[in-house]
Here is the input.
Amino acid sequence: MTADSDDRRGFLMLTAGAMAAVGVGRMAAPMINSLNPAKDTLALSTTEVDLTQIPEGEARTVMWQGKPVFIKHRTPKEIEEAEDVDMANLIDKQTDDERVKKKQWLVVVGICTHLGCVPVGQKETDAHGDYDGWFCPCHGSHYDTSGRIRKGPAPRNLAVPPYEFLSDTVIKIG
Amino acid sequence: MKKTLLSLLAVVTCAYSAPALASGGTEAPPHVHWEFSGPFGTYDRAALQRGLKIYREVCSSCHAVKHLAFRNLTDLGYNEEQVKAIAAEYTVTDGPDEDGEMFERPARPSDRFPSPYPNENAAKAANGVAPPDLSLIVKARHHGANHVFGILTGYEEAPEDHPLADGQHWNKYMPGHVIAMAKPLSNGQVTYEDGTIETVEQYAQDVAQFLAWASEPDLEARKRFGISALIFLAVFAGVMYRLKKAVWKDVH
Amino acid sequence: MGHGERTAFENPVIEWIDSRLPIFTMMQKEYGVFPTPKNFNYFWNFGAIAMFMLVTMIVTGIVLAMHYTANTHLAFDSVERIMRDVNGGWLLRYIHMNGASFFFIAVYIHIFRGMYYGSYKRPRELLWILGVAIFLLMMATAFIGYVLPWGQMSLWGATVITNLFSAIPLVGDSIVTLLWGGFSVDNPTLTRFFALHYLLPFVIFAVVFIHVWALHITGSNNPLGIDTKGPQDTVPFNPYYTIKDSFGLVVFLMLYALFIFFMPNALGHPDNYTPANPLVTPAHIVPEWYFLPFYAILRAITFSIDIPFTDITIITAKLGGVIAMFGSILLWFVLPWLDSHPIRSAKFRPVFRYFFLLLLADFIFLGYVGSQPADATMFGLPLSVFGLGATAYYFAFFIVILPWLSKHEKGRELPASIHEAVLAKNKKKAVEISE
Here is the structure.
């Protein structure tokens, strides 16, 4: 066999190998992508909530994208507690203003940022932690009346989902 | 051996792919030239929108399209605002609410088209026979869209020797000819805004194309993928052939 | 496996693994340098192609199973959700759906190649038997898989096929009830079918592994059907057959892609896009095309076997059909003993070759008969008459013609070796070119 034909063979071998890799990759992509949320799942990504149902001082849990969202109608005392905080004492530094659209309404995703449990504190009779907000029973994270992490292993504040006020009394989450 | 096998293969393909049909000597429906047929065919968006109008104004009083959601209508060339507006014209049942009651609300793009009847028995009670769901009708019938077109245009007077019972109708292209659905379309029945002629044939073509889309919404993506896949494989086969020749050169 | 001599690998990681578990040595021995007859034609590609199809079916099947719901109320809609809402779901389903057909195409060619070239003969009887077992498992898996979308053909196909077992005397009805888990094909049937449809492909994979193992003990047959006599008759598997198999595979994939992308439903049946309805049977129930020849054999037996001059029936028509259908495949298990002729390849057995090609045509004709309605006619006669005739030839070929030919066919003179035959063929070709 001549060196020339050896070269040619090597080149063809390389081309064939590359094409096989491209082909396999192109077919693997849709299989992996099929595991992403399907179109009907994505379409269900908004929830509307009527706020007139929630009296001052009470909270509701609504389902959004399969997750609990806490909607809290805060009392003036709770708003004051949330605003009157020394930034230096916060683990994840955010002012209350950055976290709400209207002061009396706090909307947060009710999932502890530590390992994904649902904190307690939605009912009057629940534990509220050391900061009058929510308390995660799994590993003892304390959240304040703005849903910020104050004590315990959680690294971040309760997430604020995207939402907008459609009117004074209706919000759309998502 | 090779030749024998190839000719056998050809015979098999012909014999097996000609589906066993024509029960009761029914005529095959006319062959319409569809924009979406052939390897490069795509749906005609204007025809789909007209077809949707016919479905909404005529078919939907009895037939559901339960696999279609309003959000799918963006495929027809509508933007999201238009889809929202179309959805809002429908009412769907949701719930239960906090008091445990079911309630009605305007439909959203994520909802599927509501069915005209609450369940199959209600559909049967109202019509004698439950009108089939149309979301897969084109794939569920031999001759596909041609069948739908044929049924919609195939109404005739029953032959004299074949008296029809109440609620029965004569259709050239229905297997067995007797159909429970009365002639659903007549000239000028639905108003087209784009100036297309308002005849039964045109209506039937448009709604058949709409139902073809409803059956196979990913047809265009499928064909696009297919063209590139075949080109890729053809080049790959060429490379492999040369490589095979090069590798085997010293053996032969 | 793998207790033999081992040469060290240069790559330290491979060497570390191989010195503990000689998996690379094994691959090298079985797929690298494995001596393979150098005169294969392209029919020898279909084993590798079938293997590729098995893997394709398993991979797409696992992903589809993640989206599918095995419940009679939800199954049909979950399949439609795959087709419409799951990202690329239509592609996965069409690959899987048409994959079943193309797996059968590859395996049928593989089987009939084995028959034509006498690959079932000594010493490859066990290899052949394992292959027939794979084919039976494939049939079971494909049938069960067709039930899962829960369309009209799913339900009624399942009803008809499971009812075959009711033909078994005495215990038949209890067996059918057991298969169904109820009094008709219903939710319990669907859930167990799904479980089995997930399980069986892995059983197939295991038997394929043993099949290939057995192949590597005896070595491959070849178009001449004579044994390899030395290194001049063989080439190493890699790169010669890895490259040739890959080329064949890519060509095969082109045909497969043509169906997936441009006529994905051509091999299916429209009725399966209508949700299952236990109150209405479709006008014409047909199985998938790959079962049609066997379905025709089942339907060909329309008579019972009685003791003459009495009212006693030994075998009812129903049982007769079932026995004929299963028997037509089970016969393949004993094929190595039905045909004991010393020459393997049909190339050197003109009479066998003639009858075999007739069998092939007969088998395809049976498929046509199976695809037609029960009351179809041909040349003015009921088609079932032709079906019975074709069935008779099928059985006659295996039970009468093969044993008879084994004793009486003389056959042609065999070439001395593969090497010489290849040389002679090349010389002839060269002469033709120079002329």
